[in-house]
Amino acid sequence: MTVREVTMRAHAAEAAVRVTPTAERIAWLNGAADALADNVDLLVEIAGDETHLDEPRLRGEMARTTAQLRFFGDVIADGHYLEVIIDHADATAAPPRPDLRRMLRPIGPVAVFAASNFPFAFSVAGGDTASALAAGCPVVVKAHPGHPDTSKETARLVRASLEDAGAPDGAFDIVEGLQEGIDLAGDRAIKAVAFTGSLRGGKVIHEVCSGRDDPIPFYGELGSLNPVVVTPRADLERGASLAAGLVASFTLGVGQFCTKPGVIIVPTDSTIEGTLPSLLPQDARPMLHPGIAESYRAGMRRAVGTGGAEVISGSLDHHEDAASPVVLGTDIENLMLHRDVLLDEVFGPMTLLVRYRDIDQVGALLDVLTGSLTATIHAGQDEDIDDLVESAGRIAGRVLFDGWPTGVAVTWAQHHGGPWPATTSTHTSVGATAIRRFLRPIVFQDAPARILPPELLEDNPLVVPRRVNGNLEVGPMRAGAGTDRDIDR
Amino acid sequence: MTVREVTMRAHAAEAAVRVTPTAERIAWLNGAADALADNVDLLVEIAGDETHLDEPRLRGEMARTTAQLRFFGDVIADGHYLEVIIDHADATAAPPRPDLRRMLRPIGPVAVFAASNFPFAFSVAGGDTASALAAGCPVVVKAHPGHPDTSKETARLVRASLEDAGAPDGAFDIVEGLQEGIDLAGDRAIKAVAFTGSLRGGKVIHEVCSGRDDPIPFYGELGSLNPVVVTPRADLERGASLAAGLVASFTLGVGQFCTKPGVIIVPTDSTIEGTLPSLLPQDARPMLHPGIAESYRAGMRRAVGTGGAEVISGSLDHHEDAASPVVLGTDIENLMLHRDVLLDEVFGPMTLLVRYRDIDQVGALLDVLTGSLTATIHAGQDEDIDDLVESAGRIAGRVLFDGWPTGVAVTWAQHHGGPWPATTSTHTSVGATAIRRFLRPIVFQDAPARILPPELLEDNPLVVPRRVNGNLEVGPMRAGAGTDRDIDR
Fold this sequence. Notes:
Chain A is α/β, with parallel strands linked by helices.
């Protein structure tokens, strides 16, 4: 099928998917999760061949993927995501006020651009697909070329499970190819695009979305430095264990996570810097594909060459398609001088230590960083870090204390987003509220009850949490916690 | 002051405005409302001279403007707008789950581009300013050149009232000028832009926002056709009264409302069409400024000339800066042929009757319309209109039954937005949820209580509605209904 044939099917399915009762959409999500879980051995084998990610990692990722599909079932069962608000008519107001009933409704067919580094959790049946289907939107996935067979097999399983569950034709499909992706984002049937990938690729698709006759939302997650600040007291109190934690975090998954800590801001002569070299694994591990390995080495060479960073530990030597961990170092003054080079995200197991002489220099440094998914603070017990928290909060969507940014729990509260280029909108791409991206408000004014969606009926047959005449009404909850899972990103 | 000096003051005030307690921000909003109310005579006089809007209209608009400022105080007092979500740590989860505490926080300094047609309600102290200040964002207004003295006097009153209320310097300011507006949208201190105006002007500012090194959200409200569908039964049952309602709506405010019904879809040989000419006022009334009057006449001439529409009633003759009402007519076939011309919004007291022979033609017609703020259906008692509602819901943010789209109540449920170009985002620009545009999520992971904002503290000292471990908790409400007001747009 051509892209246009695929999107026409999605368009044709739009109304049917939208009005499918919540319980049935939950069954779709659970059915897809079951189908993937039943075929985990095969999928992990294919994905392992294609991505070089190891089996435990892939099995963990699959567990998270299926949990995520089920979690979005909980989110829609709860009903609060619909943001129902009802204002009754008031004939005594001047002028008289009509009856207004607002809710969120599915935005329409969504294009999901899969990521290279998560063949399951951010790919064909990943978070964006789960949240868009949960919202009631048909989904067309643009497969990532890094794992084509994994994508095809996943799509086959999802499509079959949806068909078994009675979902309309066109509720889910997949396309492949660079030009096909561009055509998909520009297709008039598509009403929103979710994209996880590089800044360069993301900009291309963003421009397609903005340049349409009818521009549509582009929800991109495009890159993140994830700065980590270590105060002198934290370094003094626990520098060696911080070094160990840092190594574990930035080398996890061969450094191929959006949340890899890329800039570590430490005092001069820190215990962390002294300890790191002895902890750094020297073995080279295969990256997702040769292009990423090549970009990794090029990024490091640029940081050392043009950027003037020193190699603290590790080797920049050629490893073919594999990468070994590297720690670079510089001081704040040099970073400010070469920030265009040194603050470019390098995807892979490299991190840059930036030394400060005075903790008061750090706020100004954070202010020049671009937006990040995360910012992390390691401080001493009861240390005053208000200024650091203020600076971190300006640039990041998640501020961590005494932890490491890799590992993103899929929960109600999670926020995986941040100022540009971390994400291109003020919405998360992980966690319950990710569903908001694929919904738009609609209000019915003085509508006869017979045409109202059940969520807006006066007697609230679906027991949806809602605000009526200004007062929040929360009925009995039907969902709960306990289905949250972690995603390492 | 230069634009840069103004934005640097806004930037410097950002943290102070953000952490100002809710009760104080409410006092700012009420103080501004009081200051405007105390000076209503002067403001109405100045605005009348500058805009040619009549005194009752301007007094009504001022009442709505002050009510709107106070209403956003209720919205933030309620606390639900913060979307607080807390997930407790779970050490038994695999992997262990951290403590996550999410809320929305102010996005930072906001640029508000004022509209020409509402010198109060969508201008210096209008809805965007009210919702941004309520959210905790410094505001820099780009004044509309159509009412410069009104803008200056309003700004002076707002600034003085904020100063009296102890707001930080830089919490509110104003700039003027075309280039100044472009500089403002491109300024690195500005974190979001709200714009109400023309598609052409909006596109320029949108491109500035998208072309920055750090693209920022552009919340534009850019135009709307507001289609109205009349079924044969409705025409039969009450065609004459529908004609009267239509005339009142499309001529209100000399047709200078975003919600003016611009396309009326009626059966051939309708009572409405037959009745309209006798109801149409023939007097010419002054428009906001000569440019709008000129565009109005040019738009009508294009519709009749290139577009092949007929004049059903009214005159296209020259009226200098004034406009008299005009009703044009065409059939569906001609509309489809010339839709690029006939579906261009014409700002002013003109509406286009589009005749259908069969109600089944109407769905396809609605499908070719661009996004609108509203779509209205007039049907017979208990008539089956499911297909019409489906089509209307696809293109509009507000679907009305047996009413007229002008008049937008400022309430909790209101949605004033729609698919592009009605608005450029999935957020409203009128009603309680307009505040969401100026907020972004942040999550604190394993944060010590001493650094948490009070809204995220475990014992909930501010009694904010929140979700904890998946369960919604709604405390005693402190706000309520009763402050809603209408805005004619």
